[in-house]
Amino acid sequence: MTLLAPPTAESAPLHRALGLTDHELDAIVERIGREPNQLELAMFSVMWSEHCSYKSSRRLLATLPVRGRDVVAGPGENAGVVAIGDGLAVAFKLESHNHPSAVEPYQGAATGVGGILRDIFTMGARPIAILDALKFGDPAEPGTRALVRGVVQGVGGYGNCVGVPTVGGELVFHPSYAEDPLVNVMAVGLVREEHLTRAVAPGPGNFAVLFGSATGRDGIGGASVLASAPFGEGESSKRPSVQIGDPFAEKLLIEASLELIHRRLVEGLQDLGAAGITCAAAEMADRAGTGIVIDLDAIHRRETGMEPFEVMISESQERMLAIVRPERLDEVRAVCTRWGLPAAVIGQVTDDRHVTVVQGRSTERDRVATDRVTDGASLLSHAVLARIPAAALTSDAIVYDRAASRPARSRPAPAPGAPPIAHDGLPERGTDPAAVLLALLGSANVGSRAWVTRQYDATVGTDTVAGNEHAAAVMRVKGTRKALVVATDAAAQVAALDPYLGAAMAVAECARNVVITGARPLGVTNSLNFGNPERPEAFWQFAEAVRGLGDACRSLGLPVTGGNVSFYNESPAGAIAPTPQIGVVGLLDDVERLVRPGFGAEGDVVALLGDAVPGLAASSYAEIAGAAPEDELPSLDLERETLLQELVLTAARRGLLRSAQDVSGGGLAVALAECAMWGGVGADVALPVGSAPAAELFGESPSRVVVTVAAGSWDALRHLAAEHDLPLRRLGVTGGERLRVELVGEGATGAAEERGAGVADEIDLALSDLRYAWDHGLARALGAEPPPDAHDRSPARTGRGR
């Protein structure tokens, strides 16, 4: 057996250049029993990266709840899979592509879409939906605007061409993302349970078939390295190339892969993403308890002169590795040929539990016919470039117990003597409630996302029932009465002050957004975006977020089916706000019983389920009106949240609800405005307020839902709320073309002139004014259209207010 020479004294720092520490080099030597050569070091460097190995997060992730009555496949697979009845299952996953998108926004985002789609159809599922959760810095900054344009065009360009609708997600602006944007993409697919496919390499003697695009130098170390180490100023030379996507090749790959699966021509299937062939081969072999030999000469390349390490760790896109029985090889090749995809046998499954890389075979007969590799003996006549136990690259990769310590001050200190309840009466902050509402609706974080979503094809495939502008997307399951409801959510502003609460709130709101449609949540996927785990403060944030994620999922009875972790999201300017990004999929048994958020008819009763709690910190209101020293975060009662979601589901199933919308960004006033705008029906409501009217109107405390019911159903809803021991407040009735919110109680102290300030206690706005503010805010923030001038349609010219 001829191995490449180990590093010489002059090249000793090679492992450090590849991102491996001295301690990790010692651990590698311990696992393979000798010094690794250059190729082996390269393979370890990508497989032991944070992105591939989860070396800093694995132990904490093991604490999350993963079991559920309907779970078919969970963490460790390419995607989570949950049964939905009638032999069908839904596959879904959320993943990040942050660092590549920061380097090259278009291709970074595009290949993020391509990668998550492959995770879905690798399981045997046909992708039916994409959601993108995007985070950027100040929208007024030219750099931010360039990033937004590139990322949005990348998501749309890939999704539109591949024929999968982009139906939802989020767009959030926060200063912490200025240098480190977050691009998290979720995909959803449908699979018959009998076609579920695993990424395994069973059966020594079976062939390893690589099909799809050719292998090149693009993306070498792209996702695996970029997402696994900090990059400071002046370190651009350390940044590897970003992958280059081809959505038309991906479309062919989808169809070929699903045909191979449906015809049962493959024993296992894995896409080539981060770490390329190295990752796919090692993971498939380790899961199956087998080994695999890879012949470099058999790998089709689109560039000449590629080094062995470049071939093995290239992250060129649109490639799949299939495990095929010898007698089915011709059929597999015929399928790939019909779809115009190159296919080649690049290796065989062995029984030695090693990943072996060889070079020097000259003919296909040598490669696939004469060598029934089961004990390594037949490799002696060829150059063995690398030989590593598969487990050493995957399940037995190094794992860390990182130090964690609470930051010295995790939230702004309250002013001395500040009262426990914020007396933020609107006069004290000099704000007119109606003006605040219009400002919130026109803000970059609350307004319509049409500037983004109109660049996406949301209806291709004809399964989309609702999506994009609302909190959850609804996708019809063809051939049934069922529908899938999908949502994403994050509460990074909250997590910046309390990562436990931020993670728990994100889970609660995401599940709530599914529940208000009448759908039962099935499971949670996540993308956990944090700073450098080697900093104790950053790792404490991560540990707290995982704890919050787990507690919220356990309370709501939701299994975590998979996801990913993205560390090192920081720059010399600082780290991002901790961002546990959540995705939830739910099942609606009958799409005809879908509950929509907009007011649907005049004369319905408007009501609020749940109570507001004090706390304006991290709210959209605080962003525009200023934060007060006494502001605290609102609390989350997980038991109360669980009861609320059970109540809403029961009310929806009994047909009591005409509409439902959760209270979140911008608070109750924004929720009422959205219901009115989206339904085209106004409302006249009275809101009791105490000492903190801003908290009642614009506070974002969780576990609240605005609902409407027919007048004849009010008593039934009231009895149901009493059974669940939940507050239910009748606010008013729907009707007309204006939204009127009268404030009553101790917080409404009289007319503006009685208080010597230009403050009005009530909101009285035409729906057209609400809609105008909401429609134009994001585009203006991004400089896509000029701000209004004197001739524009201002509220004064359209009769807003008294």
- Whole-Å distance between the termini? 89 Å
Structural class: alpha+beta
> What's the alpha carbon Rg, rounded to whole Å?
28 Å
Q: Number of helical segments?
A: 26
Shape: globular
- Beta-strand fraction estimate: 15-25%
Mind summarizing the main beta sheet?
Answer: 7 strands, mixed
Strand order of the largest sheet: 8-10-7-11-9-12-13
Q: Residue-averaged pLDDT, rounded?
A: 88
Uncertain runs are: 1-5, 233-239, 362-377, 412-425, 751-760, 786-802
Number of strands: 28
Instruction: Tell me roughly what share of residues is in helical segments.
Output: 25-40%
Task: Report what the structure shows.
With 802 residues, this protein is α+β, with helices and mostly antiparallel strands. The protein has 26 helices and 28 strands. The strands form 5 sheets. Strands 8-10-7-11-9-12-13 form a 7-stranded mixed beta sheet. A 7-stranded mixed beta sheet has the order 23-25-22-26-24-27-28. The chain has a 6-stranded mixed beta sheet with strand order 1-2-3-6-4-5. Helix 8 (142-162) links the parallel strand 4 and strand 5 (166-173). Helix 16 (433-441) packs across helix 26 (767-781). The chain starts with 13 loop residues before the first helix and ends in a 21-residue tail after the last helix.
